[in-house]
Amino acid sequence: MEDKLSVMVVDDTETNIDILLDTLGDEYDVRVATDGKVALNYIYEDHPDLILLDIMMPVMDGYEVCRILKSEEKTSHIPIIFLTAMSEDNDEQKGLLLGAVDYITKPFNPSLVKVRVNNQLQLKYQQDQLKKQNEILIENSKLKEDIERISQHDLKSPLNGIMNYPLLIQKEGNISDTQNSFLNKILESGRKMLNMINLSLDLYKMEQGTYNLKVTDINVLSVIYNILGEYSLWLKSRKLEIIITLNDQELKENDEFIIAGEELLFYSMLANLFKNAAEATDRGAQVLLKLSSNSSREIEIHNPGVIPEEIRETFFEKYSTSGKDHGTGLGTYSARLIAETLGGSISYTSSEDEGTSIKLLFQK
Q1: What region does 248 belong to: left with phi over 0, alpha with psi -120 to 50, or beta?
Q2: Where are the strands (E) in the chain, listed by range?
Q3: Which among 53, 246, 278, 348 has most CB atoms closer than 10 A?
Q4: Regarding the domain delimited by 6-108, which CATH topology (the fold level of the hierarchy) does it fall under?
């Protein structure tokens, strides 16, 4: 048998208490207090589901009892219905401003009392259920994040093992230059994968605002060349032309483009944005990387494609994707997180006539 819901009646008049006991006693567990201070002690101990509170009482009136209960976290959620013989609008307004949910006027109408009590208890039940569901969702979300972090952490062990074998083979010797080159490529790919795992762990810290940025001067041109080297075969297969300019001029052999930050963060951010731009570019077309240095450092990645209308407003938000069978919607989201962590900003323009430009802005 389910426990009855509890109703606390606070009234200094015995006749009123008797009427409410008769009206509510069969359906609810009714508890009684005839004094505001005594009522507070009972409420702190038992936490009733609802309180029927008289306004006019000696020592401590109902307004003060209500104010105290609503000011404390452990009791603020308990619905309070005032019992009053007053009829002035300002008295009702005062109680509602203090946090009461309803008024019942004297003399009591038993049917009306039952309806109003039942309505408020039903509403409280629904609110409690929503609160529980929200707590479950928060806990599930936290659990998912914990599992992701643990999984990412556990990936490091087998990856470190994979990376050790090329070193052992090279140490043994008796391999050709071609074989040695292949082993170095395996090592380099392993290091980059390890860096990506570390970055995925760092993205969580960025979301929480707890990432510890280690700033050094980074030659972003060198990072861009590494990215293009990684994608060279894929770019060649698509016959894409990559044009890089510095202050609207063709690059010279010793050009540099220095921005303070972390190399891995720049690599991940620019690799994501460049890959998106290249995927949105038709075969044989151009992807333009424009680097500008004036009062600030600006990186612009332009392609002739257009961002789908349905994701333009959410382009830099988590899981925003369109038209990609295997897209996660995390690329531009992580790029925004990284740009902001590096102290910069990111924006875009996109139209059928002008194509799409992603712009990154950093201070010198």
Answers
A1: left
A2: 6-10, 29-33, 50-54, 80-84, 102-105, 216-219, 241-246, 249-250, 258-261, 286-293, 296-303, 345-351, 355-363
A3: 53
A4: Rossmann fold (3.40.50)
Instruction: Judge: domain 216-363, CATH 3.40.50.10350.
Output: no
Burial 169-192 (b: 16+ CB within 10 A, else e): beeeeeeeeeeeeebeeebeebeb
Those residues with Cβ within 8 angstroms of residue 196's Cβ, 6 or more apart along the chain or in another chain:
268
Task: Name the DSSP class of 317.
Answer: S
Q: What is the residue extent of each domain of the chain?
A: 6-108, 142-208, 216-363
The answer to whether residues 179 and 224 touch, using CB atoms and an 8 Å cutoff, is: no
Measuring CA to CA, which residue among 77, 6, 2 is closest to residue 42?
6
d(Cα 321, Cα 306) in Å, to the nearest integer? 13
Nearest alpha-carbon partner for 274 in 205, 354, 204, 356? 356
pTM here is 0.52
Sequential pLDDT tens for the chain (364 residues):
457 899 999 999 999 999 999 999 999 999 999 999 999 999 998 899 999 999 888 889 999 999 999 999 899 999 999 988 765 556 677 888 888 999 888 888 989 999 999 999 998 888 888 888 887 777 766 666 665 665 555 666 677 777 788 888 888 888 898 888 888 888 777 777 776 676 666 777 888 788 889 999 999 999 999 888 878 878 888 899 999 999 999 888 789 999 999 998 998 899 889 988 998 888 889 999 999 998 899 999 999 999 888 888 888 787 666 655 444 556 788 889 999 999 999 999 999 999 999 999 998 7
The string over 44-53, giving b where at least 16 C-beta atoms fall within 10 Å of a residue's C-beta and e elsewhere, is eeeebbbbbb
DSSP state of 77: T
